[in-house]
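User
Please review the sequence:
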Amino acid sequence: MDVESLRDYCLSKPAVEETFPFGPDTLVYKVGGKIFLICSLDHETFQFNVKCDPEKAIELRERYDCVQPGYHMNKKHWNTIVVDGTVSNTMLKEWITDSYDLIVESLPVKAREQVKGKK
C-alpha cells in the first residue's frame, strides 16, 4: 500500500472528507467531522494512525511489529501502522475499516443515520 492507494481506499468509504488541518504534511480523513485516519507525508517510512478498540490495539501491537502505539495520539485508542510489507494490504484495509466503523458508531444517531444512508 502506498499513499495513493490509501487515499483511494479512504475516499471510497461513505461520507469521508479529506483534510489538511495540521498543515500540508499531514493528511487527515474524517467521517461526520471526526478523524478516523491520520497520515504523515513527511516520514521516511510510510505510516498512518488509525483508531482501534483498546483491547484489540494491545493485541495487534503484541502480534505485529509494524503496529505501534499511536504516535502523538492517545495510545489507548490509536495505533500507528508502519507500512513495511510485513502485513497484507487486505489486513491494512481491515484496520482502516475498523477505525472508520468505530467513528461512525460513535456519531450521534442523526449523523450516523446520514452516513449509513450514503452507503
Notes: Residues 3-108 form a domain with the Aspartate Aminotransferase, domain 1 fold (CATH 3.90.1150.30).
